[in-house]
Amino acid sequence: MGAQESLPDPPAQMHHYYSKFMRECPSGLLSLHEFKKLLDLQGLDPQGDVYIKRVFDIFDLNQDGFIDFLEFIAAINLVIRGKIDQKLKWYFKLYDADGNGCIDKKELLSIFRAIQAINGYTNMTAEEFTNMIFQKIDINNDGELTLEEFINGVEKDEDLMELITKSFDLSNVLKVIQNGRRNSV
Ligand SMILES: [Ca+2]
Ligand SMILES: [Ca+2]
Ligand SMILES: [Ca+2]
Predict the structure, then answer these.
(1) 25: CA distance to ligand 1 center in Å?
(2) Which of 167, 163, 51 is nearest to 119 (CA)?
(3) Cα of 132 to ligand 1 centre, how many Å?
(4) Of 142, 153, 157, 174, which residue is 20 to 30 A from 84 by alpha carbon distance?
(5) Do residues 98 and 54 touch, judged by C-beta distance below 8 A?
(6) Contact assessment for residue 51 and residue 35, using Cβ atoms and an 8 Å cutoff
């Protein structure tokens, strides 16, 4: 609906992102260290660091320890064009730390603690947040969230959607990509 028309045609866009990527990352391979620098997330406490490493690992599709240009483009596509479902799948992957296809309370709790370590202030404790989510969307009450429960539950609940989106703000990633890092050191 209109929004996409304002974007340059794909090849030009690709070129645009390629120059940005190469400017931020002349080697063509973005390391975890550079990723944190790019997002201005250095000097986090250990919990926050573990969390950002998980975000990095999800973007690092071939798991070679670097984000290359294609992986970078895949991330941009998710941020710009991804449908809500695709984005929620991404968050699900982020929260499902052991990758067994379900989010349990421990996983959600540790994610939310890490988010607090990064963002600081929240008006709920990590425990309250976790219990609230399970009360709302663990439909069969088995203490685990499947992908369906997660997507259906979050889609139906605006507050929850906002909380989840804030847990790792993909639009901030895009802002950094568009404008470059806030203060180049
Ligand atoms: Ca990679
Ligand atoms: Ca799990
Ligand atoms: Ca369940």
Answers:
(1) 14
(2) 167
(3) 36
(4) 142
(5) no
(6) no
